[in-house]
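Supplementary Methods, section 5.1.

A reviewer requested that the exact input to the structure prediction be made available. We therefore reproduce it here, unchanged from the version used in the analyses.
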Amino acid sequence: MTASTTRRTTAVKSRIAAVGALAVAGTLLLTACGDQTESAKKDGDSSAAAEAPLFKELPKAIQDKGVIKVGSDIAYPPVEFKDKSGKTVGIDPDLADALGKQLGVTFEFENGTFDTLLTGLRSKRYDIAMSAMTDTKDRQNGVDGDTGKKVGEGVDFVDYFTAGVSIYTKKGDDKGITTWSDLCGKKMVVQRGTVSHDLAKAESKKCTDGGKGAITLEAFDNDLEAQTRLRGGGADAGSSDFPVAAYAVKTSGGGNDFQLVGEQVEAAPYGIAVAKNNPLTKALQSALEAIIKNGEYDKIIAKWGVEDGAVKEAKLNGGS
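The structure derived from this sequence is encoded token-by-token as follows.
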């Protein structure tokens, strides 16, 4: 091999090596840019959430997830229900969206039967339960209202609405019912595990103690099933929280299916249920206070026509 050939070979090898080095450097640069882009994207998302006024009040685990899982019985219009497209809508979802803006997280509603929501909360399936749940001392203490026995850990409540309980009947056929005492010897439909269910059982005992006929109770997994039973003539009356009963009277059958009878009773707060001593409770209370002060809360309550149940402050465990 001549000297000139050796030089040409060496020069070619050098050029190949240089091109290879540039390619490797380019690849590394692109990789680094990609990593930085992904990192920047993640940091940007995190920063956006962190800019929410109350993000820092959330527990670290919730901050990292960016989601609060909500256990809810999504068959209780107008509090929470599915619209024709299948989207979860209502008072609670609207309030949750407003709270989420303050906290920098998304509230994800998961459907469950009402009487299993606290069990799901205790097992950490949900972070909170938000489902027109009345704040009571029994629930705060984890006590069964019928037996007085401890059934599990209690919960804390952030109270966000006030509602009483109403009786409704088929329209034009009230069976002479105007008060709870008129239900003795009658058949009634309710949703299982609700305050209406508890009141009906207590009233039935009053009936029998007074020598009258007991109330025949039929309890369903959700209120819509109870309404269907009453609408079909399978009961004399139904009972549910006032906003739910009023909504059914207004909308079912174009307003021709049901009527309210008597006055609402046992007015009490709805609360967002959270595991005992969870710092998430304080964050939710702060967020609720914020939307009450900025007017967003009142707008949502007015949208659903339930202004009579609005609260003026976010209380903790205000139920009795």
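Confidence is low (pLDDT under 50) at residues 1-44. These observations are discussed further in the main text.
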